[in-house]
Amino acid sequence: MELSFSRSNDRIDQIIEQLVETSGGIYHPSIIKEMILATLKIGQDVDYLADLKLINRTLREMRYTAKVFGPYRNRKKVTIFGSARTEKSDEMYKKCVRFSRSLAENNYMVITGGGPGIMQAGNEGAGSDNSFAVNIRLPFEQKPNPIMYRNPRLVTYKYFFNRKVAFVKESDAIVVFPGGFGTLDEAMEVFTLIQTGKTAPKPLILMDDQDGYWERFLNFIKESLLVNGFISGEDFSLFTITKNEQEALQAINTFYSVYHSLRFIENRLVIRLLHTLTPKQLAILTEEFPELIEEGNQIHCCDAYPEEGDEPDLAHLPRVSLLFDHHHYGLLVAFINRINSFHKAE
Questions:
Q1: 171 near 70, Cβ under 8 Å?
Q2: What pairing do the DSSP bridges indicate for beta strands 173-176 and 204-207?
Q3: Which of these, 175, 169, 176, lies nearest to 198 by C-alpha position?
Q4: What is the pLDDT of residues 191-201, one digit of tens each?
Q5: Does residue 339 contact residue 345 with C-beta atoms inside 8 Å?
Q6: How confident is the model at residue 235, as a pLDDT?
Q7: Is 245 exposed, middle or buried (0-12, 13-18, 19+ CB in 10 A)?
Q8: How crowded is the C-beta side of 178, counted as CA atoms within 13 Å?
Q9: N or C of the chain: less Cβ packing under 10 Å?
Q10: What's 122's DSSP letter?
């Protein structure tokens, strides 16, 4: 029988319906039914065992990730990237311990890769009760660090791509310490995801050392990327470079001082806020960020849209809305920073 998502599958649909009802306790059953149907279609479409194993393992890892992070959905989290080879005696290790301790003191939780070096420093400073570790199975370097060993918030992955989803999806800010290929890979992925709108804007902070690791990176992107037109000037809004851990903490706190979250409803951008903006503030945003607004539209205050009904806990928040030009995600970060500046003016 050829299965379909768009038309009736007769007896198969009835069996899936019965399976969901018999299992009981199923959240969002319509989605689960579609997932079961997708699994059956995979069985019909894919005959290569290695592909089936990859799909199966991916689903299992993502399920467990959602289970581990789910109870902490209302706690803000900061992902920390950095080298697994940074020694405890290194100043950057000590700086990471201090920084992650300050995060925990400000009620943030910390997400690291769960290994040694900067990852261990992040977990050490935050403490095991305020830490997650999203570990990866490698033949070297990457066994869980002592702080996170046997911690219930330790998740171990086979596939890097699942791990990367957890790092970014579950975080409200990302801080990158100096590191090697893996650290740069993780940082560049976050750059790309924010630049293309594939993840919500969030603080991306490059924590520099005394030798200017990230300053040299900044020179490279200016001289080799910007000059050649591979990026635009507004992309420099995507990140902050600092050597000071308190500046990094302040950048994260400030980003959420007025801004709460956002959501796209088709081409309409809806930004949830912690307090209502005044007509004067809306006029300032319109004047300073015309590139973000599609021609003929304007920024206006609004209530929750019907499409946001699946997030009832956010319904009370004031909002601003506009038809968004999707070519300017780098500028969107600057737009949010400008909204947050109104907090200082009060």
A1: no
A2: parallel
A3: 169
A4: 999 999 999 99
A5: no
A6: 94
A7: buried
A8: 20
A9: C
A10: H
Please tell me the distance from the alpha carbon of residue 79 to that of residue 67, in angstroms, as a whole number: 18
Type of residue found at 178 = P
Q: Is 102 helix (H, G, I), strand (E, B) or coil?
A: helix
Amino acid present at 93: Y
pLDDT in tens, 104-159: 999 999 999 999 999 999 999 999 999 999 999 877 656 899 999 999 999 999 99
Query: What is the rounded distance in angstroms from the CA atom of residue 176 to the CA atom of residue 208?
Result: 9
Structure tokens at 283: 């006029």
Statement: residue 344 has pLDDT above 90: no
Give pTM, 2 decimals. Answer: 0.94
Q: Given the structure tokens 């000071």, which residue do they identify?
A: 244
Examine the pLDDT at 295 and tell me if it is beyond 90.
no
| Cβ neighbours for 274, distance < 8 A, ≥ 6 positions apart | 256, 257, 258, 259, 260, 317
Q: Which residues contact 252 (CB under 8 A, 6 or more apart)?
A: 78, 103, 108, 172, 173, 203, 205
CA 83, 88, 92, 98 torsion-angle sign: positive
In b/e form, how buried is each residue of 106-129, taking b as 16+ CB within 10 angstroms?
eebbbbbbbbbbbbbbbbbbbebe
- For residue 334, give every residue at least 6 positions away whose Cβ sits within 8 Å of its Cβ, in sequence order, or none: 234, 237, 289
E strands, 109-239, are: 109-112, 131-136, 154-157, 173-176, 204-207
Joined tokens for residue 109: 């939780």
Cα–Cα distance, 52 to 302 (Å, whole number): 46
Sequence-separated (6 or more) residues with CB below 8 Å from residue 182: 84
User: Locate tokens 């769960």: which residue?
Assistant: 114
Tokens of 98: 């201090």
Tokens read off for 148:
């996170």
Nearest to residue 97, comparing CAs of 180, 82, 169, 217? 82
- Locus of tokens 């990230």: 214
